[in-house]
TrEMBL record:
InterPro entries: GH (IPR017853), GH13_cat_dom (IPR006047), Glyco_hydro_b (IPR013780), O16G_dom_2 (IPR045857). Belongs to the glycosyl hydrolase 13 family. Residues 25-438 form the Glycosyl hydrolase family 13 catalytic domain. The lineage of its organism: Bacteria, Bacillati, Actinomycetota, Actinomycetes, Propionibacteriales. GO terms for biological process: oligosaccharide catabolic process. It comes from the Bacteria. The keyword Nucleotidyltransferase does not apply. This is Oligo-1,6-glucosidase. It comes from Tessaracoccus bendigoensis DSM 12906. The keyword Hydrolase applies. One of its GO terms (molecular function) is alpha-amylase activity. NCBIfam families: PRK10933.1. Keywords: Glycosidase, Hydrolase.
Amino acid sequence: MTDISSPPTNSERPDGWWRSAVVYQIYPRSFQDSDGDGVGDIPGITRRLDYLAELGVDVLWLSPVYRSPQVDNGYDISDYQDIDPLFGTLEDLDELIAGAHERGLKLVMDLVVNHTSDQHAWFVESRDPASPKRDWYYWRSARAGHEPGTPGAEPDDSPAAFAPSAWTFDPASGQYYLGMFSPAQPDLNWETPEVRSSVYEMMRWWVGRGVDGFRMDVINLISKPAGLTSSGPVDPGSAGFMQIANGARLDEFLAEMNREVGLEKNNLITVGEMPGATVDVARRVTDPARHELNMVFTFEHVELDKQEGGSKWDLADLPLPRLKGNLAEWQYGLAEAGWNSLYFDNHDQPRAVSRFGDDSPEHRVHSAKTLATVLHLHKGTPYVYQGEEFGMTNAPLTEIGHFQDVESLNYHTLATAAGVTEVEVLRSLTRKSRDHARTPVQWDDSANAGFTDGTPWFGVNPNYVGINAEDARRDPASVFAHFQKLIRLRHELEVVREGRFELLLPDHDQLWAFTRTLEAAPAGDEDQPRALLVLANCSSTPADLPADGLPGLAGAVLVLGTHASAPEEPRLAPWESRVIQLG
């Protein structure tokens, strides 16, 4: 059996290297401040490269660091080929790339090309109706019979993600432009060939600087439905954010991007964020034979704890069978063609240990470990979000003045105006706000958790005194140590990377159980295991193993466990997980 007790190492991998990789997401604003202004920056990331190498991850994904007015924390880009002074300079980024490569780490940039900032030079020029860039964006006249700029005159009824309407009137040109997220984020018109060629040119420029891949923000929105692909009137009833997703030319655009940028040719990692993507869409987009993307971020599993048909703020309980069944559906759906991305945490989600686990002092460590075990033992590429690797929790945000995110503040304004009580609004915000993911990383127990010598842009979670990276690094039983072992398992074991997935006990409301199996041991390494059983008690009470429904455990070996239990022990403690090599 492979020894997983020593720290994991990184190595260069052949084609398809991302199938055995683990990606670490960095939200730069909250990662590490180097100059005392209270905002995380690129030199701060460089300062922490040894920590990331010690963790054992293979790829660093940076949320946007481009020049931006920061209306949506950098997802409103005004210059794709410059760095916002808030985060540093291009030279700082070059040093980060070089430092990462020296440590065997690859670096992925966030690509936001469904929309730009309204301050991008392309959009500024497009506001002139005579400009050759007019059709680089979606410009439409007022609804028939309505005075431009008056309520109800918007071309259709589509809402924006962060505003009541997706259409904003521009008095200078007398028309409306489309911004599916906010008025500060106008959507690019990918039907225009010059838009696509300019995006590809920009991507090639980044590849030339040493970037190893791209995470593509809401990339399935770049192909819009027929009503928006011409300059004619649109259907006034075509409301609904998701109605514009997964358009007819999506595959064409992605294949063209792959070819023109040389994504496969340069062996780059590509992951597309695709809200509303189905299993069928994801399988098609990630099928290697189609030459589009390596993998996609899906949203179904992080939308299960809301009421059916409601918004993310309409809270609902999430029974375990529903969560594990959804992930299993994606495992089966992408088993023969395509590839899964695996995540619970990211910059848009509350902390997993608080959301899906139990962040109480009694259970936080074990539930963080168990959630990680379940996720990393699925088939696909795991993503670790900063702080997840040592069990950071949701912050105690209890009043509206504690929140900063535009989505949260917009919801508060709209919901209270609609008559929802302050208590109900805050109940939703304290559970689901994106702000929970954006509190500064808790590096140690010094002032401001070691994040900054100045005043942090967002308050540090006060539990940093007991939950921080430095303490976790020194503790061999910590969440951090457990993540190291999980990452090493993926690097070392073919069955973790490529084994067939089978969900067991689908209706059990405490146990998450599944197997990973290979038809044969890897060539030249007959000692590698061919079958693993993962058992996880995802509850805060003990769970007995059922008499049937699980493989026999005679001759089984414990590969990794959260507790000192034997593989065949018939009861799992609260939030106990075991990875078992079957005989």
